[in-house]
Amino acid sequence: MNAARASILALLLCWACSALALVAVPALSGRVVDQTGTLAASDIASLMQTLKDLETRKGSQIAVLIVPTTDGEVIDQFSLRVAEAWKIGRKKVDDGALLVIAKNDRRLRIEVGYGLEGALTDVTTKRIIDEDITPKFKAGDFAGGVSAGVNRMVRVAEGEKLPEPAPPHWETSELLNYLNPGNPFVIFGLIILAAALRSFLGRLIGALATGGIVGVVAWFVAGSLAAAMLVGFIAFVVTFLFQNLGSTGPSVGRRRYDRDNGGWVMGGSGGSWSGGSGSRGSDSGGFSGGGGNFGGGGASGSW
Fold first, then answer.
1. What would the mean pLDDT of 5-21 be, rounded to a whole number?
2. Confidence of residue 131 (pLDDT cuts 50, 70, 90)
3. What integer is the mean pLDDT of 104-112?
């Protein structure tokens, strides 16, 4: 019994130490809280005006937090702790969102309240991070990245849809319809091509040529050199090993077609803006959070 009590006490102590080790949630001192001094006063003023205008027009609330580090805590968990403590967004509407940046960790996250998840979906927030914020962060323009991300979040929250993502490299949406690796015509054409190259160039050279062609096609479709190299290598192995590739026999041809296809088709309540120390950014006029709730929706990223 004493041993059991000692074990429970040890577990409680470990849990308490772990909780104490977490970075404290910063005080909610404004719509923009910068504990790193990254943003100039003019940048903060501009962001706060943008966010204030959003609330005036729509009622939704968005806040920004920049911290030096989460000290080993994953950004997802830290941002959710902040969201639950700050409770941005209206109560029972839950239309709040939070942009959290851990500057020294080079990590960031957009946390979204329940009421905005229909507009700021996981996919949409990921695109905002990848297309609007991190490119500027990588270039050293932190103020520009935060501003671009916030402005896009505001527009999406107000109903603007993101444009379709640009296709990688030189491909177009029409081209993808024809080069889709799941298209049976593409698969059949590659099988015939592989058989012809083996016939004219020999087993090894023909297999190498087939792998190269398939790799280029994969690069068009996936836009990834690593994926293209892997698919090309698989196509080379399949072409090199199959002695009767392209056979017209009624059963053998079908079985080899299936093996070839399988091989390469991989084709919250009432938070308020309270005074805080050690951070820049504050709002005047008694602004207070409306009690919005968060459930972990949003996306994370790094630069």
1. 51
2. very high
3. 94
How much is the pTM?
A: 0.57
- For the chain, what is the HEC assignment? CHHHHHHHHHHHHHHHHHHHHCCCCCCCCCCEEECCCCCCHHHHHHHHHHHHHHHHHHCCEEEEEEECCCCCCCHHHHHHHHHHHHCCCECCCCCEEEEEEECCCCEEEEEEEHHHCCCCCHHHHHHHHHHHHHHHHHCCCHHHHHHHHHHHHHHHHCCCCCCCCCCCCCCCHHHHHHHCCCCHHHHHHHHHHHHHHHHHHCHHHHHHHHHHHHHHHHHHHHCCHHHHHHHHHHHHHHHHHCCCCCCCCCCHHHHHHHHHHHHHCCCCCCCECCCCCCCECCCCCCCECEECCEEEEEEEEEC
Whole-angstrom distance, CA of residue 120 vs CA of residue 165: 16
**Segment among 42-46, 239-243, 269-273, 299-303 with least mean pLDDT:** 269-273
Q: So what's the pLDDT on residue 46? A: 95
Structure-model confidence comparison of residues 297 and 19, the more confident one: 297
* Mean pLDDT, the chain, whole residue set: 75
Domains parsed from the chain with CATH numbers: 22-164 (3.10.310.50), 173-264 (no CATH)
Q: Are 269 and 85 in contact, with CB atoms under 8 Å apart?
A: no
Q: How far apart are CA 146 and CA 137, in angstroms?
A: 9
At 221 the pLDDT is 63
pLDDT at 247: 44
Which residues are CB-neighbours of 261 under 8 A, at least 6 positions away?
187
How far apart CA 145 and CA 157 sit, in angstroms, is 18
Which residue in 119, 121, 125 sits closest to 75, CA to CA?
125
What is the C-alpha separation between 236 and 210, in angstroms, rounded? 6
Residue 174 tokens, joined: 């029409």
